[in-house]
Every structure is written in C-alpha cells, then in structure tokens.
Design brief:
Length: 464
C-alpha cells in the first residue's frame, strides 16, 4: 500500500501539475523540514542504493547512507541479496564505519563483527557469537539479537532499499515509469564512470537543476548553435518525464524527444553529428557513446545532400547498431511508440534522475548531507553497454565541481545550484513560478513531497 495516499491535507492533483502554480522555499531552506524528512520521507520510500555490479561475489557489501540511517546491502548467496540497518543490537555501535571522505563503505566479509564488544553476525543477519550469553538469564532470543532487516529488491540492474516493512512492492512504487523504461534493459549496462561531491545546496536544489531542459538557453547557451531545446514535461504518477518538443507539432518524430535527434542546421547530416559530438564531449563523455558519435560523423559521406531529417536519423541509428553488433554489443528492441513515450529523461521519486538512450544512461542522485539544509551529496554516473570482457573497472571518485572534472555543461549547472540556494533566502523572493509546460516534472516532485511531508510545501494554483 502506498501510505502517502492516506494523509489528508490540501494538495494539488496530478492532473493539475500542468496549471500555473507556485510553491515556497521551506523544503529547500528549513532545518525543521530536513529533520521531518528523516521521519516522514526517507523511511517510507524505495531508494536506489547501488548497482548489482557492486556486489559480484557472496559476502560483498556496501553501505548506503541517508540522513541518520546507514544501511548495509550485501550478497548473501549466489542469487539473493540482504539489507540490514548498520547497527549492532547490543549497544548501538555501527557495525561498519563509513569514512567521511568516501561515498559509503564497501568490502567483502563472511561475518560482521561489532568493534565494541565483538558480537558477530552472519550474512543472514543472525547472531553467531555473544560473549557470556548466560549473563542475560535466558532473555536473549533470535529476535532481539539479530540485525534489523531492511527490504531490498532490484530493477534495471539497480538495487533498491525500503525501511518500511509495510511498504508497497518496488514494482508498484516504480510504475508506470518502470513499464515504460523496461525496454531499455538498464540491467545490461555497466558503469563507465562515477563521481560525487559534497555541494553547497539542498539536495532538491541540486536534483532540480537536472530535471528540465528549459534552462538550456540561459545556462548552456553555447548548445543553441547545435539544436533546439524547447521541451515538454509530464507527470507519471509519483515520477515524471521531460523530452524535447516542437512548437510546430508537425515537425515531431518519435526520436525527436530524446537526446538522439536531428541537430539544427540546413544540412541534417552535418548538424546531427555536431549536436551529438557537442553533447557527448561537453557532458563528460556521457549521454551518448563513441559508436553513436562515430556513426554520426560518417553521415555526410554515406547520405546524399538533401536527405530528409527522418531518413538521416533512420540511417544513423541503423549504422550505429551495425557498428555495435560488430563489437559484440546488441541493442534492445524498442518500438517507436515506446521511444516517444520514454522521452529524454526521468525523475524517479524521490531523488534519482535518469537520462536514457538505447545503449547508455546518464544518472544523477542527490541526498542530504548531515543536518545542513544548505549542503548535499551530489552524484553522477554514466552507464553503457560494453562488449564482454571490456567493462571498465570503476570506483566512486570525489571530484570538485569544475569543468575539468565534470565537463563544461555540468560545470555550468554547478555554477547555478549554489546561487539558487542563496537566492531563495532573499526576502525579495516571493516563491517559485515553474513553467507549466516545461517544468511539470518539478511541480509533480513537490506534489509528491507534500504527500509524504504532511502537506508541507504543497504547490498552490496561481490566481489570475
């Protein structure tokens, strides 16, 4: 059961997210709101904790930190996972220390030993050693000496956790987004790179910077040379999607809403390559692949001048698909209708963003950092399909928010986020005015936040 539905308060409906709306700044600035998130939000939602490739062998584990909670996620057998609260039931010491300069802890163990008194637990979370158990006069039981279990499940190659034992299933939580995105087979993708940073903004401020293309003309104006960036945004239950749109609807194609699209220019053979190359090279070699960019570069040699844009796209993708097949990479079969509905990028409530392609994905996640509403842990990583035996070895790398580390486009986004956080504190700021067509994904995000947060920060219709 989705428990957010039982709370009664004044909130907009999902049908109203496309209306002119406003919402306040409490969710971004208030320490009290941040504390309430620890009680009302994070323990009640499914959260992406990691990827299956993080747990290759029995005994492999990693920790996922959210608010005051730390979760151990581990591979307890060849085919199953377990998750437990990272705390010893004896006196409350964490079983796994998480260094401040690392994005969680990881390792391989056959048992977990508390560093305080040596209580020991196996991979099933069962206690296997207590010093002097007779002193408890028979009151120790499996129930009060085992680790506290957390729900764990998988989708798309991601590992998800939920601290609420009464929550709906992961699939129920992810729908309808999961049903639309299943065809991309994210589980066949692997890390290309992954980076993180402690950034001076609220986690929602950071995440929202990547939830709409409406900011491109103001933030990434250099990209306007290569493509049009008018966009739509749409709510899908708890989640939302955005995609490139056409002001002239007769120009729209099934591929045109995604990142794999025709560029702006008189010759689509040339402009398509220029747009693909520019996106790839300035987004830290993500949001496309070497194969796609290489195939786009050949368009001018392989197609005659005057080829229609839709035929350019068709040839480009067929050529790239053949190139990948020769390397041992197969493409999923995605219908034009599915591709159109999947759009450009998804917000998966509460704190995950995925920009997807047929053989790649660029992903973001943001989380609170300690008790400071002005800081967050911001992460980005690229996924891609690789030939067998050519998957790169990656680790989480701490990277300062510079163009050298993240690419020029992400550095431009970083240059906004801190100042949005500061600007919302101005006594002259009256509240947000999200674009009703292009920023519905963000409005729906705040609708959903309010549904968990007992109505705090609920969007309100603007009066004419």
């Amino acid at each position: 059961m989705n428990k957010q539905g039982r709370i009664g308060f004044d909130n907009i409906t999902v049908e109203e997210v496309g209306e002119p709306l406003t919402y306040g700044t409490e969710a971004f600035l208030s320490k009290e709101y941040l504390e309430k998130e620890k009680e009302l939000l994070w323990p009640k939602v499914w959260q992406m904790a990691g990827r299956l490739e993080d747990l290759k062998n029995v005994g492999d584990f990693f920790t996922y930190e959210i608010g005051d909670d730390s979760i151990i996620v581990l591979k307890n057998s060849a085919d199953t996972l377990k998750a437990f609260h990272n705390v010893c039931p004896h006196r409350g010491r964490r079983l796994i220390d998480t260094p401040a300069d690392q994005n969680g802890a990881k390792g391989t163990r056959r048992s977990f030993v508390c560093g305080f008194h040596g209580w020991t637990f196996n991979l099933e979370g069962e206690n296997s050693y207590i010093l002097d158990p007779q002193d408890w006069q028979g009151c120790l039981t499996a129930e009060n000496t085992s680790l506290s279990e957390v729900k764990v499940d998988t989708w798309g190659g991601w590992i998800w956790i939920n601290m609420d034992p009464e929550s709906e299933t992961l699939r129920e939580f992810l729908e309808p987004a999961a049903g639309i995105l299943d065809a991309f087979q994210f589980e066949r993708m692997r890390y290309k790179w992954r980076q993180w940073v402690v950034y001076p903004s609220n986690w929602k401020t950071a995440l929202e910077a990547f939830m709409e293309p409406y900011h491109v003309s103001g933030t990434h104006s250099q990209l306007l040379k290569y493509g049009q960036f008018y966009a739509y945004s749409k709510a899908y239950g708890s989640h939302g999607v955005s995609g490139f749109d056409e002001r002239d609807k007769s120009m729209k194609m099934s591929q045109s809403s995604s990142v794999t699209r025709v560029g702006k220019g008189a010759d689509p053979r040339v402009s398509t390559y220029e747009l693909a190359r520019e996106n790839y090279e300035t987004v830290n070699f993500a949001a496309s692949t070497d194969t796609l960019v290489g195939a786009a570069k050949r368009l001018v040699d392989e197609l005659p001048e005057g080829t229609a844009p839709q035929d350019v796209i068709k040839h480009w993708l067929a050529s790239a698909k053949a190139d990948d097949a020769a390397r041992g990479i197969d493409w999923p079969e995605i219908s034009p209708e599915n591709m159109a509905e999947a759009g450009l990028a998804w917000h998966v409530f509460p704190n995950m963003s995925v920009l997807q392609g047929v053989t790649f994905a660029l992903c973001y996640r943001a989380r609170p950092y300690g008790d400071d509403p002005d800081k967050c842990i911001f992460e980005s990583y690229a996924l891609e399909r690789f030939p067998e035996g050519e998957v790169p070895e990656t680790e989480w790398v701490y990277a300062e928010p510079t163009a050298e580390k993240w690419g020029s486009v992400l550095a431009q986004d970083f240059a906004n986020m801190e100042w949005v956080q500061k600007g919302m504190k101005s006594r002259g700021f009256r509240g947000t005015l999200p674009n009703p067509h292009q920023e519905q994904k963000i409005t729906n995000f705040h609708r959903m936040l309010a549904s968990y947060m007992e109505g705090r920060g609920a969007p309100k219709l603007l009066k004419k």
